[in-house]
Amino acid sequence: MLKHISIKKLFNLYDYEIEMASNDGNPIKNIMFLTGPNGMGKSTILRSVASVYKRKFSYFSLFPFESMSFDFDTCGVEISQTTQYKDVDEDSDASADKIVTVKCDYFTKGKQPISEHGEWCYTDGVKGTIADNMPNMEMYFNAQKCLYISDHRLVENYDDAVVGPHLVIEVLRNIQAAFSEGYSAHMDSSTIAESAKIEKINLMKPLLELLYDCDITLPFDIKIFDDNSVSDYQIACCENAIKNCGDLISKLQGFYQFVDNSKFLGKTFRITINSGLQFYTINEDRSMLGFNQLSLGEQHIISQIYSMYFSPIPYKLVLIDEPELSFHLMWQQQYLGNIKKAQALRQCAFLIATHSTQVFEGKFELTTDLFEQNEKLFD
């Protein structure tokens, strides 16, 4: 888990200390918002964190800074940058080559610490010499991945956000396969007490109705749960089937509730195994709308939440740049609640850059303000 970020002379100006954990080392609700005016480096900080997780060290040659330190639970990463210019003849019209050297030191904590070093040289953006031997760093970040959702999340292949016209088809197909396998694999035929039976039915019924509404083929008639004709054996089979789906059904339920609660004006929606997520206009024609026909705000919020719930990346940290883009006030006010629900399912931390106090509900204890840390520069 990322615990602390320390940055020196970002853009040759700013020093930052970003605390992701409290004094006792425990996470501060595992959610941190970066605030501050444009131009102070919020997006750069998020991309820098993402670049550490993905070992994309070329990014650190694109902007000036002195050093960055990233403190994790069991290790640390320190990155520094130096810039030189090749000498040119005074009478020459050629500009001096800019040589940027990026150095990275990785070290583990504990009784037998391990240290590794990497160094990359870039001449006018082109990689030159390489010196690195960092297998332990690669091993750590292969296990500790991040989900990076940038302010360009609607641009295909720009980051880890998932956008498409048929978002949940594969998820629903996986649920159907796992449910059928789990249902048919159950062999126990023990009797269930009446009170326990009612409790089990009340827990399972909403999930099964959701699967039915998504056109997932169930190995029984859903009506048996309405007229209490379901047998003990069928209840046990359903329990085993739901268990076999892992957390996919819970993710589907959370995503469905999010779309339903978001109140997309003038539109209704369906999630089905054949068409995925589809919106329809509320008029006589009930015209079907493709993802690209939704408003920018609608596309932004769907791409974010879908990525959090269903990304195949086993991430431990979510980085989100300006989540409020094109959001009206109600969506901004709902945002913290939305990410907390996704967090509960994915068991992850969040680092979010924003200009809106609404997205963190005015809870400034969840924020690090970059301007406050450097306001003396502007006196």
Give the helices and strands, then pairings:
Blueprint: E1 2-10, E2 14-19, E3 31-35, H1 42-53, E4 67-72, E5 75-85, E6 98-108, E7 115-123, E8 126-132, H2 135-143, E9 145-149, H3 169-185, H4 194-213, H5 232-244, H6 248-262, E10 267-272, E11 276-281, E12 288-289, H7 296-310, E13 315-321, H8 329-346, E14 349-353, E15 367-369
Parallel strand pairs: 3-14, 3-15, 9-13, 13-14
Antiparallel strand pairs: 1-2, 1-4, 4-5, 5-6, 6-7, 7-8, 10-11, 11-12
Any low-confidence stretches, pLDDT <50, length ≥5?
Answer: none
CATH architecture of the largest domain: 3-Layer(aba) Sandwich
Counting helices, strands and paired strands, the structural category is: alpha/beta
Shape: elongated
Helix content: 25-40%
Mean pLDDT: 89
Q: Quickly name the level 1 CATH class of the largest domain.
A: Alpha Beta
Strand content: 25-35%
Order of helices and strands: EEEHEEEEEHEHHHHEEEHEHEE
Q: What's the structural domain tally?
A: 2
**Cα-to-Cα separation, first versus last residue:** 36 Å
Number of strands: 15
Could you tell me the radius of gyration in angstroms?
25 Å
CATH fold naming of the largest domain? Rossmann fold
Number of helices: 8
Widest beta sheet: strand line-up: 2-1-4-5-6-7-8
The biggest beta sheet reads: 7 strands, antiparallel
